[in-house]
Design a protein that fits this description.
The complex is a heterodimer of chains A (116) and B (865).
Chain A: H1 13-23, E1 27-28, H2 29-39, H3 48-61, E2 64-70, E3 76-82, H4 84-109
Antiparallel strand pairs in A: 1-3, 2-3
Helix pairs in contact in A: 1-4
Chain B: H1 2-34, H2 39-50, H3 53-64, H4 67-85, H5 87-116, E1 127-134, H6 146-155, E2 159-172, E3 179-186, H7 190-194, E4 200-201, E5 217-219, H8 221-228, E6 238-241, E7 244-251, E8 265-268, E9 285-290, H9 296-313, H10 315-318, E10 321-327, H11 328-333, H12 336-368, H13 370-378, H14 383-419, H15 433-458, H16 461-473, H17 480-512, E11 522-527, H18 537-552, E12 557-563, E13 574-579, E14 589-596, H19 600-604, E15 608-611, E16 622-626, H20 627-633, E17 643-646, E18 655-662, E19 677-681, E20 690-695, H21 703-713, E21 719-724, H22 725-732, H23 734-768, H24 770-778, H25 783-812, H26 828-854, H27 858-864
Parallel strand pairs in B: 3-8, 5-7, 14-19, 16-18
Antiparallel strand pairs in B: 1-9, 1-10, 2-3, 2-9, 4-7, 5-8, 6-7, 11-20, 11-21, 12-20, 13-14, 13-17, 15-18, 16-19, 17-18
The chains are: A alpha+beta (116), B alpha+beta (865).
Chain lengths: 116, 865
Amino acid sequence: MTPIQKADLLQGTLDMLILKIVALGPEHGYGISQRIRQISKDVLNVQQGSLYPALHRLEKRGWLVANWGDSENGRQAKFYRLSREGRKQLSREEATWSRLAEAVTLILGTTANQEV
Amino acid sequence: MLRWRNLFRSASTQDELEREIAFHIEKLTEANMARGLDAGEARRQANVEFGGREQVRQQLREVHSSAFLSTLGFNCKSALRFVRRSPSFSLAVILILALAIGANSAVFSAMDALILRPLPYPNSDELVFLGQHDVKSRNANRFVAPVRLEDWNRMSTTFQSITGYYTDDLSETSGPLPEKVTVALVAPRFLHVMAVAPVLGRDFTPEEERWGGPAAALISYGVWQRRFHGSADALGQKLHVGTFAYPIVGIMPASFSFPTRDIDLWTPSAPDAPFAQRRDATWFTVIGRLKPEITLQQARADLATVQTQLGAQFPKTDADLSVQAMPLKETVVGGIRDSLWLVYGSVSLLLLIACSNIAALLLARTADREHEISVRFSLGASRTKIIAQLLTEVFALAAAGSLLGLVIAAIAARGFQLLSSELPRAEEITVNWRIVAYSFVCAVTATLLCGVFPAVRGTRRQFAQSLAKNSRTQVSGRNLLQWTLVAVQITLAVTLLTGAGLLLRSLHGLTRVSPGFDPSHVLTFQVTGSWGETSDMKTLTQRIDRTLNGLRSLPGVEAASTAGMLPGVPALYQAEFKIDGHVDPNHKIMADSRYVSTGYFETMQIPLLAGETCNDSANGRGVLVNRSFLDRYFADRSPVGHQLKAAAYNDFQPEGSIRGVVADAREEGINAEPVPTVYSCFSAPTPFPNYLVKTKGDPSAMAETVRRRIHELDPERSVYGITPLQSHLDQSSLENRLRTFLLGLFAGCAVLLACIGIYGMLNYLSRVRQKEIGMRLALGALRGQIVRRFLMQALRITFMGCAAGLVLSLAANRFLESMLYGISATDPTTYVSVMAVIVAVAAVASFIPAWRASRVEVMQVLRQE
């Protein structure tokens, strides 16, 4: 399957994905991009040019908390984890997303004879 | 706050970004290598894969560039636009604020240097002035006997050490001509108490501080530069001062000028000298350094205990004495404090007026900009944002104003230094970072004072909407806030003007007062001498009388005499006297004690009322009294022939039979009523008394003749302080004239600002009410009625402001009471004239816009509608 580039992602979707990944446990920027790719089975490939600004924006808003720590190869890396505020934000976005997805599915599923 | 931290942290943030990116590329490289690529290729591909690194950096920077900064940038731009769009308005605001903030900063710089900053010595708050005070006789003499100083130093427990000093004006004779030098003769431990070390050389040794020890002198930085051109060879060289030769052992730093700024050298005065052993021979001015953490109260209690012990030990000389202690700073700065606070208070009122003036201008302005504001609202700007923008605009003006104000302050500080060379510490008045910080604070305060009202008000949505309607059909009022601001300006202007008026009338009164003596054509000067000469009073008085006779024989000299203190220069030396040996404890005889020589009353043209004048001052012991003394203590009796003697025993106290009575003269200061005075006929109260020479022509023209004659008589002595008596008098009233001038200036500015305030307000009203006026005229109103309506509105506010100002100034002017002469702080004439002036000026200021309002072209207005 062709990977979906950032431009194709809905505005705000990337933020939600990042929050979700980080909710699984503290992760650094490289790790986050890898996880998104693996979990989406290579459909979503986040460019670093969008990943890092998004991470820093989320940190600035207080949804992510960043700390420097040792990575698996022993080098220092900046790890991001979810703040309490971020967790709330994630559940809000998940709710919005599933409503949106339902709505979109409904609309796309409409056939001619169902028209009112 | 967080934003500010961001600003400062930006460097380390930058660093973190780089590390984060580097880590990512590292991981990509590792992954590529795992896929079997060699290291170089793996890194190259990783870089490609990561993409435009610079682009990422740029995006991250954008995320981090603080919102605050970008808003600030935007607001500043909008402020610049604002200035460009209305340059004359902006210029007016900047100039008003520059004057107000500049004047304020200038006065603050003087306050800071004279009052707020500590004295320029280490831990100077530990320095205390100590004086002895005779409880019984209330003798004003605070000098301390050397032996008592040593007792205090030894017995007290709250002081690190205590020392003292007195000064001599002597001649230094190693040059071709004798040069006057001022010598501070200091008790042991002087530099220890001051906690200042010589820049070169050393402090005195204990041997040098003892009687009969080797001679030694510390010289001032000025003398070092002047006489030795700053060469280190100066150490060990000898200075010939008076009858002694002093080897120089050290050079003091340039900043050290204690006790006065014209001290040339310091030399020890041994307290164990044989002539210093009497407990009633007092000459030291005493200062001490408190131990750390000791309060003035503790020190006072300690010294009281010490003095009680001394009183028991030496009942005759010490029993009646108490010890006074006060911070040294208070004695240095002294009476100037009140004047400074007065001037500072008034200049702050001026700043307040300026701010309310600008606030009113801005209110009118914001009303004009209502369209722009509502557009911004509809574009989604929050109210806070718009307020911030409006405040930034004002701040830009205030900052420009305060920058310009700093220039004014710098000029003023220079002026202070020149004007007030006689003020203590005047050389410390400079524009430094404290003044810069102060004027910045002023700018912020001004921004808030003049910006907040208009900003908050102008951004109220319903206000903007109502204005939008009103601008078309406004009928009246709803300008309460603006009118209040105008009234406030008038109130404060009235307060300032009454204060200035009172001071001015008081000063004017003083110039009309007859001082009782004639200061014109009198030349004053001193001739160097040494306190050591007082051990042989006969020779000393002979020397002075010989000099006086030499002066009298000069052509062009009408009379010559000496006096302990200059007439009319404020100084009061109160002492208690007894007549014919009687002391009545219920009716103390207190009088100002002055020493004058033969010829004094002729020189000063003080008339003799009874008896005979001083005619044998060389032998001393005759006294004269003045009219006030006669009236108070002798009633109808003739005082001539009665014996007068100081109540407290003291070498230098006068005694003798009363020879005559002279008229009252304002000897203690032109602004002080004459007090009972005892004149002792004695030509040598000090080794360097003031000479007074009455000349036929211009006294200054005689200076050279006098100098030459003294040189003929006494080649080793030098003449100094040659000045006409009148300039001494001018100098002593300088503080009074200066504060009157400044207050007058500020009051003038205040009235001008208040006028601009009224004018601007009416101008604004006539603009927004143009249509209403047009309607009225169309409906048959007379132009005169329109003018009258406007004028009445302005005058109503003026009267209200005047009433409030009256109350405020009655309260505020109580602080002036002690500075006024011959006029009360509630002088009705002053208050009435101030009101009249304000009302008249306000009427003129409001007439122009009122008249212009009535000139509306009816047809044009109606067509617009």
